[in-house]
Structures are given as structure tokens and as C-alpha cells.
TrEMBL record:
Protein name as annotated: Zinc metalloprotease
Binding annotation for Zn(2+): 59, 63, 161
Localization (cell): Cell membrane
Source organism: Prosthecobacter dejongeii
UniProt remark on cofactor binding: Binds 1 zinc ion per subunit.
Record membrane topology: Multi-pass membrane protein
Protein family per UniProt: Belongs to the peptidase M50B family.
Gene Ontology CC annotations of this record: plasma membrane
Keywords per UniProt: CBS domain, Cell membrane, Hydrolase, Membrane, Metal-binding, Metalloprotease, Protease, Repeat, Transmembrane, Transmembrane helix, Zinc
Active site per database record: 60
Transmembrane segments: 46-66, 99-122, 142-160, 181-200
Length: 367
């Protein structure tokens, strides 16, 4: 993650702190200062926040160690002002495994809260004068913080742990894709309800609104990613690439490109040099705007869009789509891994058609 730096490495997992975290510490110290106790107040406040975030870190290590148990790499944990993020190489696909990985975070907080409660109970037995549950007591506050963390994380919405627990639970009864879509819909419903409640009750909490928005988006992304993964499973780039396409020579004019554009449904034309190596793409958008500016005799090579990336036909379609999405070019050249010659074009449109056909054939098989 950008703007974060490493503070420790525990059992192979880096612990990183995001720079914005220090803004939080500063704000907390200032608030503690203004409480009337001066520096002592600031130190108290900082001590509590540090302890609270230590609990966040332990929560993340709960996920990390559970994931390790299933052979999943866990490169780092980053502490942000809004909480911790443990990066797992992947989420386990088996529902029971996902359930364990998701639940182990909140369980750590349950364990901490229980340990504090037990310690306070023991103290009360040993010292009957001790005032249990006096307001503002450090350990009581920390216990409450851990319970709040459990409640918050168990909200059944992605990317909260509760969303993953729910998906894992649903996936035991239905397929993974449907379980994800149901869990995501519930998460979006909760986020929307909270936002609407704020609107109608006129109680505006900017942080809560931000969290609702974040949950709404994350749930949608999770569902879309799983749907795409399901649709493209087992397919390679060569199964979905455009193989019947026209190309332009290096000396083509804008007029030549227009002829090709009007002759068929292809929108973006690879330009090849005399040896057949790809130089770039003449895209429809650039072609149309250059045509009105420069006229049809203008060399097309001047409006060439260079392709920052190319694909091999044998990589998975999921990876190909991800790389296509990461560039601004509307099409990605597919090159033969040995000869480096252009063998196809990957476009979102063509992939969409391939997936549609596949879904139709699958539907036929089921009936
Ligand atoms: Zn968690």
C-alpha cells in the first residue's frame, strides 16, 4: 500500500503503518490535551489508542494465522486510521475454510475481552474495595472496544468479516456464485438502509455515510468479480479473442482506415510494419477526431495508439481481461509466444459475446 512503511515482521508477515495513522495519533493527543489534564490527558489518550490498535493488529493476525493454516501466503498487514487490512494472497474457496479464516479475527477480540473480564473479576475477588466498571477505567474501555470490534466486524456485509462468514454459510447450501450474490445484495441493502435512515432521521454522521458507501461499492465489486470468474473459468485468451480482423500497413492514410471501419464491425485496427510486427492500434475514437482535423490523406501512423501490453493466447481469460481493463486501449493485441506475430485481438465486446454464447449453450444443456 502506498504511503505506508514497515515497522516489524512477525512470523513472515510484515506489519506496516500508513502515514495517515499519525494524523489520527496527533488528533487523539490534541483531544486528550484539551480535556483539562494537559499532557497527562494526552498521554492517557495515546496509550488507549495504541492499546486499541494493538487489538486491531491481533485481530488481523487472527485472520493471518488461520489463512496460513490453509497454505495461503499472507505478505502484510497495514494499519490505517479506520482499522487494519490483512493482505491475503487469495481467499480460500472452500466454504468451511473461508468461514474459519473470517471468524478467527473477531474471535481474537472475544478472547481479549474475556481475558480482561476475567482479570478484572479476579482483581475484584482479591480486593473487594475495587470499584468494578467505574467509568473511564482503561481496562473497561479496552474491553468495550473489543466488543464493539466484534459487533462491527460481524455486520453481514462485504468486506466485513460477517459478509464472508455469511457467504461461507450460504455456500454450504448453494453454489459459490449465488452465495456471493446473495451476501452482496444483503450487504448493499444494509448500507442503503443506513444511508436512508440518516437522510430521514436528519442525523448526519459523515463517517457512517462513508462506511456505508464503501460497503455498498465493495459488495458490488465482490459479486461482479465472482460472476466474471465463474463465467470465464476454464477459458483461455485464445478462446475469446477476435481472429478474423483487418490490419493496416505502415503507410496507410486515415482514408484507408475509414474504408475498413465502414466495411465491417471492427472498430480498432492494428498497424503492422513490413515484417508483420505490430506498431500500435488505430482506434475509432482517434480516427474520427483526426479525420475532421486533418482530412483523409493524413498518414494514419500519426494517430497511432501504442499498446502498452500484449497477451499470450494461452493465459487464462480472467487474467487477460484484468490486463485489458488496466489499460486505456480498447483492444489488446494477442501475440504468438514464439514468433511474436499478431494472432488475435482481445476486446471487451468480443469477450462479452463469447460469454453470452457460452451461457446460452450451458442453459440448453441444463434443460
Ligand atoms: Zn477481520
Amino acid at each position: 500500500m502506498k504511503w505506508s512503511f514497515k515497522i516489524a515482521k512477525v512470523a513472515g508477515t510484515e506489519v506496516r503503518i500508513h502515514l495517515t495513522f499519525f494524523i489520527l495519533l496527533l488528533l487523539v493527543a490534541m483531544q486528550g490535551m484539551s480535556g483539562g489534564q494537559g499532557t497527562a490527558g494526552a498521554v492517557d489518550a495515546l496509550l488507549f489508542v495504541s492499546a486499541a490498535f494493538l487489538c486491531v493488529l491481533l485481530h488481523e493476525f487472527g485472520h493471518v494465522f488461520a489463512a496460513r493454516g490453509y497454505g495461503i501466503h499472507t505478505p502484510d498487514i497495514t494499519l490505517l486510521p479506520i482499522g487494519g487490512v490483512a493482505r491475503l494472497e487469495r481467499m480460500p474457496r472452500k466454504p468451511s475454510h473461508e468461514f474459519v479464516v473470517a471468524i478467527c479475527g473477531p474471535l481474537v477480540n472475544v478472547a481479549i475481552a474475556a481475558a480482561i473480564k476475567l482479570a478484572l473479576g479476579l482483581q475484584m475477588v482479591m480486593n473487594p474495595e475495587y470499584q468494578f466498571e467505574q467509568p473511564g477505567h482503561f481496562w473497561e474501555k479496552l474491553m468495550l472496544w473489543n466488543l464493539i470490534m466484534v459487533a462491527f466486524n460481524m455486520i453481514p456485509a462485504f468486506p466485513m468479516d460477517g459478509g464472508r462468514v455469511l457467504r461461507a454459510f450460504l455456500a454450504m447450501f448453494t453454489d459459490y456464485g449465488r452465495a456471493t450474490r446473495w451476501a452482496a445484495t444483503l450487504g448493499q441493502g444494509i448500507a442503503l438502509t443506513v444511508a436512508l435512515w440518516m437522510l430521514f432521521s436528519r442525523e448526519f454522521h459523515p463517517v457512517l455515510l462513508l462506511i456505508s458507501f464503501f460497503i455498498f461499492m465493495a459488495a458490488g465489486q465482490e459479486a461482479a468479480a465472482v460472476t466474471q470468474e465463474e463465467a470465464t473459468r476454464g477459458l483461455r485468451v485464445r478462446d475469446a479473442m477476435l481472429t478474423d480482423f483487418r490490419t493496416l500497413p505502415q503507410d496507410a492514410t486515415l482514408g484507408d482506415a475509414v474504408v475498413l471501419l465502414l466495411a465491417g464491425s471492427q472498430q480498432d485496427f492494428p498497424m503492422l510494419d513490413e515484417r508483420g510486427n505490430i506498431l500500435g492500434l488505430v482506434t475509432r475514437n482517434r480516427l474520427v477526431s483526426a479525420l475532421s482535423e486533418n482530412g483523409p490523406m493524413h498518414p494514419a501512423v500519426h494517430v497511432l495508439e501504442s499498446c502498452p501490453d500484449s497477451l499470450s493466447p494461452i493465459i487464462s481469460l480472467g487474467e487477460g481481461l484484468e490486463r485489458l481493463r488496466s489499460i486505456t486501449c480498447p483492444a489488446m493485441p494477442v501475440l504468438d509466444p514464439v514468433s511474436r506475430k499478431l494472432v488475435g485481438l482481445l476486446t471487451a465486446e468480443n469477450v462479452g459475446e463469447v460469454l453470452m454464447v457460452r451461457a446460452a449453450l450451458r442453459g440448453r444443456k441444463e434443460t
